[in-house]
Design goal:
The chain is 54% helix and 0% strand. It is an all-alpha fold and 93 residues long. Helix 2 packs across helix 3.
Length: 93
């Protein structure tokens, strides 16, 4: 795996970034459903669109830390919790 120089954004094909987006998105979806919220409700409470929330949940959207915080707050979780892999999940090399 190639390391990125300090300050350079990772490219969308970066497997680590792709994996983190998928982990965050899957955990966000689970937390949203547990909270009984629709994507539209989450979108309205964060000033995002429902389509954007959908793309985040499927791991297809790069998001900022501020957006992660806003989404986490709406579903009642911490960002760090939403970035955790499920126990027993095997990490690809």
């Amino acid at each position: 795996m190639m390391k990125h120089p300090l300050g350079e954004a990772s490219k969308s094909g970066d497997s680590v970034a792709d994996d983190l987006r998928a982990v965050f998105g899957g955990n966000l979806r689970a937390a949203r459903l547990k909270a009984g919220l629709s994507q539209a409700q989450v979108a309205a409470r964060t000033s995002l669109t429902q389509q954007y929330v959908s793309q985040v949940e499927t791991g297809h959207q790069n998001i900022t830390i501020a957006t992660m915080e806003a989404l986490a707050r709406v579903v009642g979780r911490n960002v760090s919790v939403l970035l955790r892999r499920a126990r027993g999940q095997i990490k690809e090399k």
